[in-house]
Design brief:
It is a single chain. The chain has one helix at about 55-60, and strands at about 5-10, 15-20, 25-30, 35-40, 45-50, 50, 80, 90. It is mostly beta strands and about 110 residues long. Strands 4-3-2-1-5-6 form a six-stranded antiparallel β-sheet, with no helix packed on it. Strand 1 and strand 2 (about 15-20) form a beta hairpin. The longest helix is centred in the middle third of the chain and has 4 residues, at about 55-60.
C-alpha cells in the first residue's frame, strides 16, 4: 500500500490519503489522525511513498496510446527504477532525467 500525501487547496493543509470514499470524496487524515472527507477536486497529490510527484512526471505525461507509452513499447525498453533516486527510467536511458546519475557507460 502506498502512502500518498495530498494538499487541500482551500485550507492550505496537508493530509495523508486513506481512500476514495465515493466518486467525489476522499478519506484523508491529518497529523493527529483525525479522519476527514474532502472533495477530490480540492486535492493535489504532493508525494507518493515519500517521493515528489515530479519523479513520476515522465510516466504520467506519456501519450495515452499504448503503442507510444514507454511502459508498453518494447523498442523503447522496459521501465526500471534509478538506483540513485528511484525515479522511473527506461532501461535504455544513459542518464537519469531526475538526478543525473549515469546509468549506461559508453564503451
Amino acid at each position: 500500500m502506498s502512502i500518498i500525501l495530498v494538499y487541500h487547496r482551500p485550507t492550505e493543509s496537508k493530509y495523508m490519503w486513506l481512500s476514495a470514499s465515493s466518486e467525489t470524496l476522499a478519506a484523508v487524515c491529518d497529523a493527529a489522525g483525525a479522519i476527514r472527507h474532502l472533495p477530490t477536486e480540492e486535492l493535489t497529490v504532493l508525494e507518493v511513498d515519500g517521493r515528489p510527484l515530479d519523479r513520476y512526471r515522465r510516466i504520467l505525461e506519456s501519450p495515452e496510446r499504448e503503442s507510444e507509452n514507454p511502459l508498453h513499447d518494447a523498442h523503447e525498453g522496459s521501465v526500471e527504477a534509478c538506483p540513485g533516486c528511484d525515479t522511473p527510467v527506461r532501461s535504455d536511458e544513459r542518464e537519469c532525467p531526475s538526478c543525473g546519475l549515469t546509468l549506461i557507460l559508453e564503451p
